[in-house]
Amino acid sequence: MKEHSSATQQRGGLLSPTRIGPAWGLLGVAAFSLTVPLTRITVAGGGMSPLFVACARAVVATVLAATALLVTRQPLPRGGQWLRLGIVAAGVVAGFPLLTTFALTTTSAGHSAVVIALLPAATAVLAVLRTEERPPRAFWGAAAAGAVAAVGFAVFGGGGFGGLHWPDLLLFGAVVAAAAGYAEGGLLARELGPWQTISWALVLSAPPMVVLTGIAVVGRPPTGSPAQWASFAYLGVVSMFLGFLAWYRGLAYGPMAQVSQIQLVQPVLTLGWAALLLGENLTWSTALGALAVIACAGSAVRTRLGYPATDHGSGPARTDSIPLAGRNRAKTAEQAADNGSATQRQSTAAARAVR
Length: 355
Description:
- The protein has about 350 residues and is mostly helical.
- The protein is about 80% helix and about 0% strand.
- Residues about 1-15 and about 310-355 have low confidence and may be disordered.
């Protein structure tokens, strides 16, 4: 039994290398960290409407995704996978961009970054619900503390005891939408492949995004400075496509809970970009709010990571979503493990015979 367990660990270790998953996840987080500040730049001055920025960038990403799917002749998703792709599309293609873009018309990038810092904990919670895990109470306590910290910052950071303002409500809605898309997309990436998952989600959402883009153009023809158009191009190419290729690849290599911890650095990077690109001042209240939310989110993710998962969603990725080289290494490792186990059994038998 011990020999079998040892072989299994070796196989899982090579199918989900300790560095490959986090490295891809960090690349995705670095790409996403610019999304909020650049969105703030595009909607500044009113040259581009929030509806245009949120929907047109999805259209740009869809062109890239559809081209990649056609060139590589990817097979169509099957059955229930389309419904799951709909969840990804609703969360990360439509929900998060629309909600954050409208919120950023009236709130700062730094304020938004602190509220969005709740995303890792929200992703962990939805991943737990999705995989039917039974984590300890400490997980739920940390997740609840993170939500309280984020709400408290939104209330006090928005002008005292006046309660939550509509941009904060939009941001919290964006967190829930993105968390659902991340959790479902991370699981689906193990079946379809990382870049295929976001590509099919973009294609699925194309009809409504194209229609909404047309409505936005007719209502207010987009104008902007070169910096605003460059920011928009980044949102369409990197934030909506290339960033997800890296992020879902990291989640597919997994474990998902471990890779999701890397997202804790995103609000820190975003605050830095907001100060550098927008000249926003990092106040003590923003810094303390960010630290509180990040600490609670990190505690929730680490508590879940320390709890044995009951579903494959937190385990190593399936070999059909790993590159060919990775599958070859896994096969070699399996053979080596089997050979090592056989040699150990022979040595044990010989020792018994001598005795």
